[in-house]
Amino acid sequence: MRMKFRALDMTMAGMFVALMAIGANIATIAPFLHVGGVPITLQTFFAILAGAILGSRLGSIAMIVYMLVGLVGVPVFADFYGGLSIIIRPTFGFIISYILIAFIIGKMVEKNKSLATFIIASLIGMVVNYLFGTNWMYYAYKLWAAAPEGFTYKMAWLWMLPPLPKDLILAVLAGMMAHRLEKSVLSKGQFKHLKRIS
Predict the structure, then answer these.
(1) What local confidence, expressed as pLDDT, does residue 135 receive?
(2) How many CB atoms lie within 10 A of CB 8?
(3) Ramachandran sector of residue 78 (left: φ over 0; alpha: ψ -120 to 50; beta: rest)
(4) Is residue 168 a part of any domain in this protein?
(5) How much is the pLDDT for 74?
(6) Overall number of domains in the chain
(7) In Å, what is the CA distance from 33 to each residue of 42, 77, 94?
């Protein structure tokens, strides 16, 4: 089916592209946002919100645009990085996962708009982010990147433990926030169109 976009759709998608860029570099902008030396990023949080608020199609399109903007050289990735060379970086899988997150969460909340569904969908999105991104990172180090000495699959997952509590909390908050917006704002007026692009 052909997708028709209004100015509002493009504005909302563009807003999430900007939020992803901010979320990628929030710890650079505010250096105090480090816990145990691990920077706090909000990319997964905003990717979850994109799917939950914009729906599967527009949300995933917003994440695709974010990725393409970075690939053409605009510094929207972590550490204000941009350019095609990001493709060979071990962390590129996390960027791809944002598209999957938005699509999967969008599909789930389009079918059921209960608070429980929003929260469960958000947590599933976080799991997708970890599974896809961590496995991509592991195989990237094994196949083409310079892996640290003694690098193992277990080590790759151990690296993901420090941000895990933060991501769990933010995933639940994202689900709750999106559900609240759905009930108070998105179900009214012109916003009702967002999740029914055909």
Answers:
(1) 97
(2) 12
(3) beta
(4) yes
(5) 97
(6) 1
(7) 11, 17, 20
Show the domain range for 115: 7-193
Of 48, 55, 50, the closest CA to residue 3 belongs to 55
Task: Please list, in sequence order, all residues whose beta carbon lies within 8 angstroms of the beta carbon of residue 169, skipping any fewer than 6 positions away.
Answer: none
Closest CA to 177 of 125, 115, 129, 102: 115
Label residue 54 exposed, middle or buried (CB < 10 Å: 0-12, 13-18, 19+): buried
pLDDT in tens, the chain (198 residues): 455 668 888 899 999 999 999 999 987 777 666 554 456 789 999 999 999 999 999 999 999 999 999 999 999 998 899 999 999 999 999 999 999 999 999 999 999 999 999 999 999 999 999 999 999 999 999 999 988 889 999 999 999 998 899 899 999 999 999 999 988 776 555 555 555 543
Extract the tokens encoding 179: 């559900």
CA distance 16 to 38: 24
Which tokens in the block code for residue 102? Answer: 């938005």
For 44, 98, 132, the CA distances from 127, given in Å and listed in that order, are: 10, 11, 8
CATH of the domain at 83: 1.10.1760.20
